[in-house]
Amino acid sequence: MAPKLSIEQVSMEYGSKRLGRTKVLDTIDLTLADGEFLAIVGPSGSGKSTLLKLISGLERPTAGRILLDGESVTAPPPGVGFMFQRDALLPWATVAENIDVGHELAGIPREERPDRVAALIRLLGLGGFERHYPAALSGGMRQRVSLGRLLAYGPQLYLMDEPFGALDAQTKLLMGQELLRIWTTHRKSVVFVTHDIDEAVALSDRVVIMSSRPGRIKTEVAIDLPRPRDARRIRRTAEFRDIADLLWRELMGEDEEVSA
């Protein structure tokens, strides 16, 4: 079966001949299967977020190509949703209205949208907050609304750039569990960027570690842990710790190379 996403010999540089050029990504080869949850970790500045921008079509690579469902990505393609670390909620819109933006972008008929919004609010545990504005919500609830808007859009590929990175440890764990529950139901393809090794192992099918700049694929590790998973309980198992320790050694080895 052809992969959902193929990244072939992709490199990315910024700058100009006059001011000098900086290579951010160097010869990235990576595939993503349909329905796979892939996590990407690496040192700061390794090009993880840049790679997401290239996949989304927001930027074009300097070299190489990216294929989504066999088609070359040259502009933002339909069926790709992006969730950032900082929510991009409309401050003048209610919870229900912010979620409904996803339906509007997806072209869902207006008459179908109220029932869809209500279903997503139930799914995300936001009942009773439908008419609240973002300023009245906690960080975790705002991220639930962002996730609801993404689900309303209904992409086939989710690009998530440290979506829970700004949350406290408890809320981050709860949001990870929520994401796992939803992913288990819908089984969409996910590329999830994080600095948190434990989060990557708890959520994903496979973890990729990138090198320092220019970013390269240094290590890929399959996460052979049973599904469905409880993001909290799985962390207590010996199997989890063995995988996390392996990834930490790879990442710390990278850090030592950088500092040397």
Order of helices and strands: EEEHEEEHHHEHEHEEH
Helix amount: 25-40%
Low-confidence stretches: 256-260
Overall mean pLDDT stands at 90
Report on the biggest sheet: 6 strands, mixed
Computed over alpha carbons, the radius of gyration is 19 Å
Please state roughly what percent of the residues sit in beta strands, choosing from under 5%, 5-15%, 15-25%, 25-35%, 35-45% or over 45%: 15-25%
Total helix count? 7
Structural class: alpha/beta
Order of the strands making up the biggest sheet: 6-7-8-3-9-10
Our measurement of the CA-to-CA distance between the termini, rounded to an integer number of angstroms, reads: 43 Å
Tell me, what's the shape? globular
Number-wise, the strands total 10
Structure explained in plain terms:
The protein has 260 residues and is of the alpha/beta class. The model is unreliable at 256-260 (pLDDT under 50). Helix 6 packs across helix 7. The strands form 2 sheets. A 6-stranded mixed beta sheet has the order 6-7-8-3-9-10, with helices on both faces. A 4-stranded antiparallel beta sheet has the order 2-1-4-5, covered by helices on one side. The protein contains 7 helices and 10 strands. The relative contact order is 0.17.
